[in-house]
Amino acid sequence: MDHFPYRDRDLYCEGIPAFELAERFGTPLYVYSTAALVGRLEELHTAFAELNPLVCYSVKANSNLGLLKLMAGHGSGFDVVSGGELHRVLRAGGDPGRTVFAGVGKTDDEIRDALRLGVMLFNVESEAELEAIDAVAKAEGVKAPIALRVNPDVDPKTHRYISTGKKESKFGMDIDRALRAAESVRGREGLAMTGLHMHIGSQITSTEPYARAAAKAAELIDRLRGMGHDLRWCNMGGGFGIDYRGGESKPIASFAEVMVPRLKPTGCRLAMEPGRSIAGNAGILLSRVIFTKQSGDKRFVIQDAAMNDLIRPALYEGFHRIWPARVPEGVPSWPDDFEAAIPGTEPRDVVGPVCESGDFLARDRHLPPLHRGDLLATFSAGAYGMVMASNYNTRPRAAEVLVDGENARLVRRRETIDDLIGPELVGLEG
Ligand SMILES: *Cc1c(COP(=O)(O)O)cnc(C)c1O
Question: What is the pLDDT of residue 344?
Fold first, then answer.
């Protein structure tokens, strides 16, 4: 959390105290660090330099236009999974020619738009999709650049909801199927197979699945070239894990270490689609304690960020470090182990105001004494946080702020109730 340090027991984002941001912009508030975002992007560029990489930042991890603009400005391409995300890339000044388009259910309209905009690659997930892209491309009088999404059948040993590279996944095709599909591509004049795509899952903390996937990719590239396909891109997807607890992830360089030697002989350029590993630890969620409460033996901290703001704990048991933005005396200002019984703390459930028992950010978490109005920080919230936020319980979504040094810029204003009910007013007419 280099860019979210504690100084004199006060949490900062880069050069600005968290309490100042909360006062200025209100809570719940997502806060992102420019230096963290750009730093991770550069780390990827450096680690994979030998493969002349194109980082296609995975828009679904955090699609805020301010972040996308920042990424584009630092040379990032993009990975999109819908026409809507592609539109965001354009609005942020991103280059469609450096954008890859994935997703198991692309519609003809989305395919046509993407073709007209000139996306770099369609990551194709099924035979039916090949047919659809071929038909649309022929009607447009162009050749669609495609990469087959292949499941290398490696087990990334991550949460089952975010594992995608196994045989029984809804994504991509197994290797035999992909080879048959590649045969059929040769006869289709609307398609040009210029790449290969794999994405084996998310929050992968071991390098071994990548070593195996890269080896399979290299072998497959040979075979596809043997069929006459002119492969120039090897797209290894995203999925690099980050520290949520502290110390569980590997540095980007160690993933590069196992992938580069296996992919280098192919001569392909490397495309990659990191999302979480860029945005995850570049963001925190600030919230304020509304009430504290005790029921039986259980103690609750009820604060103003809820499952509708950050659903990862409820959806896939995601763990987030949570700590006061101003740490009282007598407790460490940054504990080594957030799951331990830290001296001066008591176990509490950190919950929101939403009417669901599943509305929690943490359970049985050791926290120092907290009071109404205290500010809490939920860490590692930059990826799969705001993008999954909803308006459940008619809760306006949080504001988002992008910090750069001592400068904080609102990149999404807090929603109003009118924003929420506006689309329904049509039903009140007449
Ligand atoms: C979700 C996704 C990614 C990004 O995954 P991260 O774990 O956030 O890096 C990349 N590619 C595809 C196809 C995805 O679905």
Answer: 92
Position 1 pLDDT exceeds 80: no
Task: Give me the pLDDT at residue 35, please.
Answer: 98
- CA dist list (Å): 41 to 70, 172, 333, 402: 11, 26, 29, 16
Distance CA 278, CA 420 (A): 30
Pair type for strands 283-295 and 375-378: antiparallel
Q: Are 86 and 122 in contact (CB under 8 A)?
A: no
Mean pLDDT, the chain, as a whole number?
96
Count other Cβ atoms within 10 Å, centred on residue 354. 18
**Res. 316: pLDDT tops 90:** no
**Phi, psi of 194, rounded to the nearest 5 degrees:** -110, 0
Ligand 1 neighbourhood includes 274 CB (under 6 angstroms): yes
d(CA 60, CA 47): 23
H/E stretch holding 179 = helix 175-186
Q: Is 199 in the pocket of ligand 1 (CB under 6 A)?
A: yes
Q: Which domains does the chain have, with CATH numbers?
A: 6-31+280-423 (2.40.37.10), 34-276 (3.20.20.10)
Round to whole Å and give the CA distance between 51 and 26: 44
What strands lie across the sheet with 16-17, from one edge to the other? 6-7, 10-13, 16-17
Tell me the mean pLDDT in the region 357-378. 97
Which atom of ligand 1 is the closest one to the Cα of 275? 8
Give the residue-averaged pLDDT of 206-223.
97
The whole-angstrom separation of Cα 300 and Cα 321 is 16
Tell me if residue 355 is catalytic: yes
239 C-alpha to ligand 1 centroid (Å):
6
Q: What is the pLDDT of residues 100-149, one digit of tens each?
A: 999 999 999 999 999 999 999 999 999 999 999 999 999 999 999 999 99
Say if CB 289 and CB 370 are below 8 A apart: yes
C-alpha to C-alpha distances, 304 to 18, 48, 57, 118, nearest whole angstrom? 16, 41, 30, 43
End-to-end CA distance of the chain: 55
For residue 165, is pLDDT > 70?
A: no
